[in-house]
Amino acid sequence: MKPEIHNIKSETDRLIIRPLQNQDYERWMEGFRNRLPSQHKYDGNKMDMHGWTPQKFSEDVIAKLQLLADRDEAYVFGVFRKSDQKHLGKVELSTIMRDEFQWGLLGYTIHNQYWRNGYGKEAVKEALSLAFKELHFHRIEAHINIDNKPSIKLAESAGMEFECTRKGFIYEFEEWTDNLIYFLNAK
Fold first, then answer.
1. Which of 27, 62, 69, 120 is the S-S candidate for 87 at Cβ 3.0 to 4.6 Å?
2. Is residue 69 a contact partner of residue 95, using CB atoms and an 8 Å limit?
3. CA distances from 177 to 78, 82, 171 (A)
4. pTM surpassing 0.90?
């Protein structure tokens, strides 16, 4: 049974994790506008927010994310701080394979102005819970570049286990790069 993305919402002590909605436009824009300069190789550059209108947000973000969820390809959840509803980033669960595998991939991004507050760990732990309870995955993996120490630390602190190194696993930075595979299975 395919989950209905718009019905999925979860809360932790400090966070709300839910699909983005049209009314999130201003919070979403503010999160990107207030990003600090890139902090390291895996921290993307500031996004050019020129030309982003509420309509473009609705069409290019909300509608596309809904389509991915309808196809059971990916589920992207905004991460919001409870105290002031600020958009802190996102967690993403992508389907690798269903059927007898129920296997997915975890991705996460917290805007760098909110780093070092434990939001990433809190959001990832809750995303893993959603993956198993709401999205019915059995296995979730995180594919992490071997030199991405903050992401490795986050995966480990969220309870994921190191499994292996996949050599030449992903093409990025104009070369095939190795990735560390961290995983967690449903209990």
1. 27
2. no
3. 28, 38, 6
4. yes
